[in-house]
Known about the structure:
single chain, YbaB-like_sf, YbaB/EbfC, DNA binding, cytoplasm
Amino acid sequence: MFGDLMGMMGKLKETQAKVEATKKRLDTVLIDQASSDGLLKITLTANREIKSIEVDNSLLNDKEQLEDYLIINLNKAIEKASKVNETELAAVAKEGMPNIPGMDQLFK
């Protein structure tokens, strides 16, 4: 009994280390999002940290339009990054879980 418990604890620590390593790796995965007309480009990491925003000069003349572009494209970029982040972390977490009937349903 204690052997199984110690084995599980070791596996959980190993999984935790893999999750942390995956989080660090996701800092290097870049997500690009551009407006359909190319006037605004946003790059962020899969951990949802903004790395760059490029704004075409034509958008600088219309504050409201620029704000709309930023909101729309930042939300799209964050959604893409969140999907990558969640998929990667779920895969690592699922890999490290003990084989308990019904637990696999939590990661679908």
